[in-house]
Description:
mainly alpha; five-stranded mixed β-sheet; 29 helices
Amino acid sequence: MDIIIDYLNLFVGDERQFLTLSIVLIAWVGLAALGRVFFKNCTDQVILPMLGWAIFANTLTLVGIFTEIGFWLVFILLTVTATITFLYSIITNAKIFPKSFWQTILLVSPLLALTAAMDASQWDEFSHWLPIQRFLIETNGFPSNQNPSLGTPLYSGYPNNWPFLVMIPSMAAGRMLEMSGGIFNLLLLIIIGIIAVDTFYKFAKIEKPNGYSWGLAAFPILAITILNPTFIQKIILTNYADIATLACSGIGAFLCWRLSDSLAAKNSAETKALAFQFGIAMTLLVNVKQSNLVLFFLLVIALIMVVIIDPLISKEKLFRLLPVILLPPLIMYICWRYHVTEALGKDAVEHSFKPFSAWNWAVVHLIIKQALVVAFKKIAFFGLMTIATIFVILQFYSKWGSYQRLTFILVILFLGHNAFLLFTYLASFGPVQAATVVSYWRYNTHVGATAILFLFSTLGFYLHSLPLRKIKTLPLSKIAVTLAILLPLIFAPKLRFDLESPKPHFNLVAHELSKTLKPNDKVYILDPLGTAESVVITRYRIKRNISFQWGWHKDTSFEKLKNFVASVPHRGYLLVHSSNPAIKRILPLIKYNSSYLFQKMESKWMIRKSWQFPDDHKPVS
């Protein structure tokens, strides 16, 4: 019985679960309604929430940079606008979602419920993505020299399109709802899944069901889960911005393809509408992560190359549209860089390139070697895109059609992105990080949509030449529905990575510590055998008005640790999460099976609280 209860608890959380799910879905509807009102000519209903998000994020960005108006007033005005536009769409019968969208949401609801029941647990969530949301809400403005972060250090130069989206539920609820990012990530992936399934139907030349189809609703879920070679639960079900980049670059590739097809068909009205939609959608991409400007330029280069290569497309028409394509993203990117330069200056915290003389030329061979090792280990993604590259080479001089245009755009995005990544390891990272190509696989998820779109479009393209009678006899819809429902149920324990020890213990201690400490209390964190995970979690939980120092050291010698402990001032607190024989000599009261909160009183140490490790926590010494 206990096993059943423990299993059900994987899907059931506290009141935050309901709040997060309901507000995220309401916000998604509002963004889609905004997109419909401002883009009445958009025939691809699936991207309307993205266009609405662009309106929302761009408005907040411009207001935050150029006015003294706070984010809260803008949020209220945009919420009212979204509500009015939603009611207007109902009155005018303007569709804001594809026909099977809500069926897809019902089928994916076990995964949505599981995600909403989780607690934040990943390093980068605590080091930037959650603190920046809280900072924007609490200070009502961007980080600047006049509005600095007083607690958790932030990557203050990072753009904020992603935090703007995921902080909507927290603003609406009046409290931090930390798992909204995971829910939004799943909704963004569903957009890519729906687009992938649509390309399959298009190239297979199979008519989509006219009515509501559970099979049609289930296929997008499979596209983004079991058939997604870049499905990494510790990125998707978190507040990380990688999936937002995947969705924006994927939609950019989709709109590039649609635009090239429209140019080939000489559909002037549709071409103008698609060019404008692409330009607005790309304002999202360039201000999700600072390096995403490269992805935008790769998409534009791919589109220009398609137009130059394909004799069916008028070069002149595309070049007339370039201002509409280029100006919106570039204007928004330049506005943000203006803020970074003027409001932060040299104090801006962001990644940058090193001087040419400091580039990692000595480890170039190791960079290439390790990148190949990673590619071999992740053969599902890299192998698929290698096949796509071969297809493009083989079909380069043949007659081009819609499939060839799409494949070419996807390959240029994939190859260009990887070339840029290798360049960053050479010019931006430290020698050790470069030689190990740190996060190379994670960064490739930024173009993960290329593999999903290539897989489904290729299946459709080559399926068209096969006898469809045999395929139609297969119960594909029933299989898809069954898998969509069962997969999260089967893999639920694996998906609840937030329960992996020692994360729950660190979160518990940090939560209780936040209730114990006063605003001016000094906290020192000693975790000499840890990875500093305890530090980033505690630093976030104790909020922005607490001073921090931490004691994670590669050098765990007696002298090093003794000096660190001695640096704690009178009445200062020392939180100890791990110990070794040297720590035992300094603090004899410590046992290896607990975390301790000490307070220094003159030269003596008093234990104020202790927390015993859970059974699955392996204390080290």
